[in-house]
Amino acid sequence: MAGRLESKIAIVTGAGTGIGEAIAHKFAREGAKVVAAGLPDDPVDDVVRAIRERGGVAESFLGDLADEVDAQACVALAADAFGKIDILVNNAGVFPEIAECQDHSVEMFDYVVRNNIRSAFLMTKFALPHLRRSHGVVISTGSEAGEMGEPMAAPYGGSKGFLHAFMRSVAYEQGKYGVRALCVCPGPIDTAWTHKETGLMDAQMEKQTLAGTVLGRRGTPEEMANVFAFAASDEASFLTGTLIFADGGTTIAKGGPGEMAKSFVREQPKPTLDLKHSHDGLKGKPVENRMH
Ligand SMILES: NC(=O)c1ccc[n+]([C@@H]2O[C@H](COP(=O)([O-])OP(=O)(O)OC[C@H]3O[C@@H](n4cnc5c(N)ncnc54)[C@H](O)[C@@H]3O)[C@@H](O)[C@H]2O)c1
Fold first, then answer.
1. Which of 26, 39, 124, 244 to mutate to test the pocket of ligand 1 (most atoms within 8 A of CB)?
2. Which amino acids bring their CB within 6 angstroms of ligand 1?
3. Which of 10, 203, 258, 278 has the highest CB neighbour count under 10 A?
């Protein structure tokens, strides 16, 4: 049976770890040829190797997508390798610091703007001529934080709010050329960011975060990848300018309903993708020039 992304060419940014690894695997399983992009010390080559071992088609791009030259080179690689681009997923992002607003450094703010906003702008700018030819789609990873705000990480919350409005603007403006644009907005996902052992949250924040979903648990990267696969497919042809909240009910939660969720509700679905870097991200791996 043909996959839902058969014959599509997709760029997935931040594809070495976390949600991006799952999107890359899922898209390949659905028949897309994938350019997996990430920073030079992200395990992107490993993800590409794993996709190829399962019979998929993938190429890696290593570079800083917030850099104009690198972003342009990433788009050029996809177009040269596969002849066209149908799908751009702006998923790369950072969550570098937990602090009250007055205590965030300006350097950290610039780092968030650069990696969460500038990278998505550059990739969208350079991919649009190709997406207009293919009548393609650009999907950015927003967040419930872009809607609800993110206390103790206000610059991060603001950066996701930017992406929501950015995608809606692009959707309106580019719709006449047959290009769709939207955001998938996750709640807390089972990646390195939401665990006290691998991310910035302490035990209290971790507990509050899970209680702040209706389902009382993290979503899995694979559950997010399922939503991206649908949104990128032709089945979603009337979906544009929208924000898909895939957040376990975070945006409707009041008063910590997750603590009332029965144990079977809190169980994550069994994985079907063979992911190696989604959960722990870069923990234990040598990385340079990161703020976390
Ligand atoms: N984990 C969550 O709970 C959660 C919730 C809502 C939204 N999100 C969003 O999902 C996306 C993925 O998050 P994740 O949890 O998988 O984190 P992650 O750290 O595992 O993945 C992000 C990836 O993006 C890469 N990246 C960052 N800046 C880059 C740049 N300039 N160029 C190339 N690559 C770059 C990182 O190296 C990393 O591999 C982010 O945009 C994040 O804001 C995550």
1. 39
2. 13-14, 16-20, 38-39, 42, 64-66, 91-94, 115, 119, 141, 143, 186, 188-189, 191-194, 281
3. 10
**E-state strands within 238-282:** 243-246
Along the chain (292 residues), what's the average pLDDT of each consecutive run of 10 residues?
A: 94 98 98 98 98 98 98 98 99 97 98 98 99 99 97 97 98 98 98 94 92 97 98 98 98 90 95 92 75 66
SS3 38: strand
Of 119, 109, 94, which is closest to residue 18 (Cα–Cα)? 94
The answer to whether residue 172 is catalytic is: no
Distances (CA, A) of 264 to 45, 55, 120, 279: 36, 35, 37, 21
Instruction: Confirm if 168 and 146 have CB atoms less than 8 A apart.
Output: no
Domains, the chain, ordered by start: 9-191+219-250 (3.40.50.720)
Cα–Cα distance between 47 and 45 in angstroms, integer?
5
Catalytic residue among 111, 156, 172, 177: 156
Distance 138 CA to ligand 1 centre (A): 17
pLDDT tens-digit map of 94-132: 999 999 999 999 999 999 999 999 999 999 999 999 999
